[in-house]
Amino acid sequence: MIDLEKLKDFVKEQLDGESTGHDYYHGERVAHLATKMYLADNPQAHETSRMVAIIRAGSYLHDTIDEKVTSNPNKVIEQIQKLLPEVGFEDLEVKDILFTIQHMSFSANIEHHYELPLSGKYVQDADRLESLGAIGIARAFTYGGKHGNKIYDPEIKPEKLISHDQYRNHTETTINHFYKKLFDLESLMNTPGGKKEAHRRTEYMREFVNEFMSEWNV
């Protein structure tokens, strides 16, 4: 028996006070999206399966070790390594969850593409979907405002991303973030459900940016 409630309590504690769009509710939405897509793509699967539990665990946990959220990712990883067996996961399941949450981020895959386990592909797709559509727009501006980024500046051009360090440290505007990252996520999806939903959300987001630019250029 897997006790996801204990895992959720751990996540709530770790992300308490987080205000850039990487909070507990983000993890909850990722868990819902990833589960929904996995069950749709695999009609023979059941919601109470261990695979679904693995997907949900990775979804809830993924931002607890993010460098944007914690100053000590290694310490949190050690806590998760201890927690996962305590809530009922077996050794190979723990290994898959840990590999996923340590290698699924956009920044981790700029210089090297990591092949995730099947469960991780759904978690990664769902997390990326959260960067698209209406919620993606809201999260982008929340994160940009929190970090002092301008909404837009025509003198600051989008940069091609070539490394993790450049991604974290270059001069950014929120509108540029759409061009250098968000519009490209659709092409990076792993799963049938992820690709379909990413296309819908990206089209919505393109309409928003087009409207923004038309208003800017009045």
Question: Which labels suit this protein?
Answer:
single chain, 218 residues, mainly alpha, 61% helix, globular
Describe this structure in words.
- By secondary structure, the protein is an all-alpha fold.
- The protein has ten helices and no strands.
- Helix 2 packs across helix 6, helix 3 crosses helix 6 and helix 5 (91-103) packs parallel to helix 6.
- The chain is globular, with a radius of gyration of 18 Å.
- The mean pLDDT is 93.
N-to-C SSE string, H for helix and E for strand: HHHHHHHHHH
List low-confidence stretches: none
Main beta sheet? none
Question: How large is the count of helical segments?
Answer: 10
N-to-C CA distance: 60 Å
Q: Can you tell me the overall shape?
A: globular
Calculate the mean pLDDT score and round it.
93
What structural class results from the helix and strand content? mainly alpha
Determine the fraction of residues in helical runs and give it as a percent range.
55-70%
Strand content: under 5%
Number of strands: 0
Rg value: 18 Å
Task: Quickly describe the structure.
The protein has 218 residues and is mostly helical. It is 61% helix and 0% strand.
List the helices and strands and how they pair.
Blueprint: H1 4-14, H2 24-41, H3 50-61, H4 73-86, H5 91-103, H6 118-129, H7 133-146, H8 164-169, H9 174-180, H10 192-216
